[in-house]
User: Fold these one by one.
Assistant:
Number 1:
Amino acid sequence: MMKNSNSPFKIVVIITLVIVALLIALVVMINNNPESNEEKALDKQPSIEGQPTLGDSNAPVTVVEFGDFKCPACKAWGENIFPQLVSDYVDTGKVKFSFINVLFHGEESKLASLAAESVYKQNPEAYWGFHKVLFKEQPSENHDSKWITTEKILEVARSVSNIDTENLKSAIENDSEMKEVNKDTELVTEFDVKLTPTIMINGTMIEDPFDYEAIKKAIENALEGN
Ligand code: CA
């Protein structure tokens, strides 16, 4: 029964299988090709002068997050990616990290940014603690409902060491650090930030901020370039 092993039918099947295998190989190759998922390299990088900055100020690589306290993806990024970045690169002195405010969610974003800038101005050491707790307070459901109020900010501030809440309250009421908030907004415009979080490694904008391998790769490339 199986004698006629070179039947045209069998050859057609074999050729088809070879073509399918080649197509699969081609698709895999394209998907693995870094060129097809290239990060956006710009000819400039955001100035971090006057920005809250974590890590060694002499670290060779700068990572900037354009973020919004009202944005759920920023909360998720801060909880899932940021700690890895800190332990792999900030704590090892290779990266310094800055946060720039984005006001995509209106008045609440503005209030949170104003508060964060005021905390930073008052005591730079207290900034990252405040930053972390404020994101933690973002409700995981109904984040669109109003939750950023002066009341909430003062409650957060009280839970962080070394913040003078009376001073913070008057700074918020007087829009004391509005200039800093506006400076951030100018950077958002200058770098054409459309999504939050947007992560930049020196002058490279990361396509998918949740792709930690891409972040690592961009940092390693930047380290080699130094
Ligand atoms: Ca700022």
Number 2:
Amino acid sequence: MNPAWLIQQKRDGKELSSEDIHAFIEGLTEGTVADYQASAFAMAVFFQGMNLDETVALTHAMVKSGEHYKLGSVSGPKIDKHSTGGVGDKVSLILAPLAAACGVKVPMMSGRGLGHSGGTLDKLESISGFDVHLTRARFESALSHVGCAMIGQSEKIAPADKKLYAIRDVTGTVECIPLIVASILSKKIAEGADGLVLDVKVGSGAFMKNKEDARKLARTLILVAKKMKLPCRALLTNMDQPLGYAVGNAIEMVESIEILRNDKSSALCSGDLKELTIQLCAHMLVLGEVSDNLAEGRKLAHQKLQDGSAWKVFVNMVAEQGGSVDQIMHPEKLPQAAREIKWKARKKGYISKMNTETIGRILVELGGGRKKASDEVNPGVGLAFHKKLGAAVQAGEPIVTVYAPEKVKLTELEAMFHDAVEISGARKPVPKLIYEQMV
Ligand code: URA
């Protein structure tokens, strides 16, 4: 296989053979295909697309580029969830222990913040000592003993994806359905999942801004997963406002802990975050054949939150992965930036629209996300919302509390925030939380 020839073929809209795709990805992994050739390949695919067979071949080649955990030592159904990314999306922190408490094993491989969207690993690392780099043996042991484990992509899991993703991130080729599909699925298959529930986000804070694109992504993910013998379902869910109330790293951990502890006095326990987590859990339980249908799955999920089982699994997971149990028992000990400022409504009305991507970008400016891969994330900064879409506000009433370090200037960020959050005289309908459930 000549990489330049293969790039030309794709550039000219021709179908690539499975053999050529495999050889190209092997070359990328071994270093015989240069990074500039991989970036030209990604751009050619971005413009010309790939059919189903090509996407399956690319996914397969990326799995084959590294180790394939079979997780043979772990008994029971192994079901994972993946979100395409959003703002305030802390579902995984609650869902992994909850689903494990209900009876599936959850081998969760997560990512770091990307652009304006947050990353589960950054949130987990707000707990002192929490280790997201478990060896395969420790990963399997944690799954067997605790029921779930949350780790990052190791050098051994789909290394071709790791390389290609880093190249896509800096060459404007992230938003490309076949490349996204191969990237997500190769990692999930390599980590050893028996089934996968996808949370495909749609809206102003998602990578997919409209339902049409999100539906197409979800359909392709399901089709390719099925061809690769990975049972898969997808939910199309709203990202026109942050999920829950907190946006940040430690602050999202605090919100998750509150739900896991099932504190009924908390407003969080009846909101969108809990509802989506319960529904995703029900799908995981059906996929893992723990529950016969979604209604039964939901019932079991509610029960395991209420009786404290999910919280227990979470505490065990934190201990198993070296995190400070003292901090999660006393969340006020988690990092929090020194300055606390309220951004207030400039007029009376109803919160009618949020540019959620801008909210994610404000967090990055505060230091809670990265502008380049080598940036350090500040776990203590964040935004705690007091109002969500549809809420009534008085002029001067706080919409959000901002936790910021002393050195960050807030004037411009506050202006960005007021541009991003629209207040109108009449209450507009709030978008549905779950648009579609695709099986
Ligand atoms: N998440 C991934 O893992 N890969 C992509 O390409 C996009 C989102």
